[in-house]
């Protein structure tokens, strides 16, 4: 029975990536190869990032006699990534799963239901962990000798570290579920927490190498702090670097004992947790006039409401806007650095630097805008309610256009804010201002059309959760990487072919015109062939 539950959980997690819901069967070998290449690319990039970090630390820490700190930091990096990556999934899978009552109505022990979900979450943590620990192990072996006991300790630590992560994720997820259940807008709280964690992650990434230099320069002091305050990390490092059997046993106890305690407590209270009727804020009904709007507006607001009610949808579909807002905040915070760059540019180019800076700002805003994929899963998210949408007295073309509008309304404000900020940060140029206003707008509109069209060809209606649809759908992947390729083409052309032969400002205007023509063509497609394809879904 437990084996069947685990199998079903894994099938639910991965089916949306490898199965075509429109045809009811798995994708062909070509699509699977393409997806495998994409995943390999993502994992390779992350592995190279962490490999470069450990490369900077390995030999300096060895010279200081702090080999244990090298693996302690690797374990701490793995813990942080696993915790951030799984905390909200733990909350939704353990405490707020929609199939709790269905499973409890079956002759299935509650402990089996809980264990199957925890095992599925452990698998996700292993994927996150290996991206860090494999580069750490490879770099260490390349430069320093290893022992058989050290290898065994490394493998045991890799196996058990996610158990420690699960312990904290279960506790923190329970706290989030408890707090959010007593709040009227719990999704807003989860969204804010998620955005804060994302911003913290991006802040660390932008200052990563300076942090690494500080780690190397202050290795002794950091080692003492870790030894005194982070007991499991210290013994993880000692077990691997010094082949210490005692430290390995202490780490095993730190990882396994709390996990077992948490599992026992949750399994004994799982029925109460799963069936609890959480309190909500009572809303007093007030009679007011009913608002009437057009069909397109009503559908647009429906899609925007779905976006605002799902924190994972916002984080995954509005990444470009979030990055753009972070860049705007950094530019305001570091205004003196921006001013010095402008003065430096004037020394080389004179007043021409003004329009060049505006062109660069327009390109940056466009590049961030292309990372937004709000429209890519918008048709798939209709799920089992698609038939309701198709029975409405609204032409199919307008239904599709409403999803384009939802993308534009959600993503354009960040670009407009950036343009306004540029008015205060950059020397004024009318042509530059219009360029920075129009190009990101056209890129957002293009990405909105592109996402809807891709989703028409690769819909996914039998998803288990909206988060899986947003994060794992093939249409989302094509929209994201296809959009990046579209932006990369003009950048690479200018850098390696056209540079010097054509003014940058003129070049940006040309590509703005190209995007405008593409938008018109895609609008025409949605109103004709795209509508017919939607009717056949």
Question: What order do the helices and strands come in, and which of them pair?
Answer:
Blueprint: H1 2-18, E1 19-20, E2 25-26, H2 29-63, H3 67-95, H4 100-104, H5 110-143, H6 148-180, H7 186-206, H8 208-217, H9 219-229, H10 231-241, H11 245-268, H12 270-275, H13 295-308, H14 311-317, H15 319-333, H16 335-349, H17 353-369, H18 386-391, H19 396-425, H20 430-457, H21 466-472, H22 474-498, H23 504-527, H24 529-536
Antiparallel strand pairs: 1-2
Helix pairs in contact: 1-5, 2-3, 2-5, 2-8, 3-5, 3-6, 3-10, 5-6, 5-11, 6-10, 6-11, 7-14, 9-10, 10-11, 13-19, 14-21, 15-16, 15-17, 15-19, 17-19, 17-20, 19-20, 20-22, 20-23
Structural class: mainly alpha
Beta-strand segment tally:
2
Low-pLDDT runs of 5+ residues are none
Q: Portion of residues in helices?
A: over 70%
Estimated radius of gyration = 26 Å
The run of helices and strands is HEEHHHHHHHHHHHHHHHHHHHHHHH
Name the overall outline: globular
Domains (count): 2
Order of strands, main sheet, comes to: 1-2
Strand coverage percent: under 5%
Number of helices: 24
Distance between the termini: 36 Å
Look at the structure and give the mean pLDDT.
78
Largest sheet: 2 strands, antiparallel
